[in-house]
Sequence to fold (597 residues):
Amino acid sequence: MHSIPGRRLIMGLFLIFLLLPIYWLVNMSFKTNSEIVSTMTLWPHTPTLQHYQRIFTDESWYSGYINSLEYVVLNTIISIAVALPAAYAFSRYRFLGDKHLFFWLLSNRMAPAAVYALPFFNLYSAIGLFDTPWAVALAHCIFNVPLAVWILEGFVSGVPREIDETAFLDGYSFPRFFIKILVPLIASGIGVAAFFCFMFSWVELLLARTLTSVHAKPIAAIMTRTVSAAGMDWGLLAAAGVLTIIPGALVIWFVRNYIARGFALGRV
Amino acid sequence: MDKTVNQKAWFLVLPVFLVVAFSAVLPLMTVVNYSMQDTFGNNQFFWNGVGWFKELLDPSTDLGGRFLASLGRNLFFSLVILAIEVPLGIVVALSMPREGWTVAACLVILALPLLIPWNVVGTIWQIFGRPDIGLLGYVLNAIGFDYNYVSNDVDAWVTVIVMDVWHWTSLVALLCYAGLKSIPEAYYQAAQIDGASRWAVFKAIQLPKMNRVLLIAVLLRFMDSFMIYTEPFVVTGGGPGNSTTFVSIELVKIALGQFDLGKAAALSLVYNLIILIVCWIFYTVMTNAGVERKVQAEAEPAAEPKPSEPKPAAALKPVPALKPREGVA
Fold:
């Protein structure tokens, strides 16, 4: 009654469709370059770790991962910190312009990064943040803060209002109530929102590439530049790609039951 | 649960307002400023009024021609991927296993493409589709198709569309799955007693319950495909010729490639305006749907809230995924 006939087959085919390109990338990352170019092999016949070794020993490569993680973590912290009180306000109170503000936030989540690339470049150059992790972290706030507000608002609304009222009757001040009672109650929501901030900051390239040049260059940008300079080192490119998938694949296990809720902006 | 009016709530919203205004309003003002001016380099600017906007909307000029062509391509692209991803996502969601460890496994694999950096998505398909070293390109050529996404327009389009389907169908599927999960078992039992057919169950129970998530899915997919940049840029670079140059790619070419600030700014504004209008339409429809939902919810008893939600780490337990908190979907 719930599902459709032939569902195992459909699901199986779809999962194969999803996994095949990823398998091919992993496959290539373990091949030597001569094997990649000369023959078509379905698995590495002479498996090698040379590409991974190169990434982990060459600073110009692994510093990219560190740079990326730096601005991603910064962005996640900023986004959650400012979004939490706002989510509470949107969930509990009605105030002047609340609906418009909410819509304005949503519209910023949807704004194309390409529109902001150039003005951000000017803005962050003018205030001296260009080529620092702060520039990218702040720039990514434009879509992550609204997202965090939306997700957290959904979770705060799931906390019964009586809990606030009881806490205030018990003499809790607002900040104390917030940290001692509300935050633990919506811990899973904070986890999900943090995960989504992490993820969207991690997958974005255009702004991250525009706002950095040398010191804060993200791994994604290093991938695109080094490859064209080195004349297509396919194995290295594949290995770098595989390493960018791993962080997401690790965290996803913990939020798998909430992931749809996060994508639905907290309102499934 | 009615909200109380409290203007002091503005203080709680203020940090968000400041952060987003800093990254949204300030840059947008620069864009408005540039869009009225022309530059001949050396930071010298000349007043150009609405000149750029006139040119932008006139297909006979270079700028207008490029903008309108890329806009047309982009709209076509968005419609095609919506037409594929939404039905496919529904089918996949309906095909999800019902219980056991396979549910978790399917959820994780489904979500995997969503977590890959966008340029790596491009790289994956760039490699996968190459006739010399990619499995897809090699197999297609081996069985007799003359497939080459670098030189053939149609092949490039097919590659970009299949890539997007690969990348984002899971999102639609996950959202629909969440919607399906919120349907109480009693509905199905009632349908069974009535002897409803499989199709009738879908049309009368499942589809209406998925309405809301589908709306969000369509909104997100439309918006994200409308501003798509990185993936096609990595795979095709906008080519062959201009055949896969979407609006964002064109904009970045003008802004960061030619540093033609006035033209880029005018294009940005029109682009943003389109997004804003579509966004507003969706938001209105969504809020209206929300009101209907509330009216419905008052008629039905609300499920008990779960004040102590397990932490993400505790989610390792095989809890049935995605129970709606507010009870009624």
User: Anything to note?
Assistant: Chain B is about 65% helix and 0% strand.
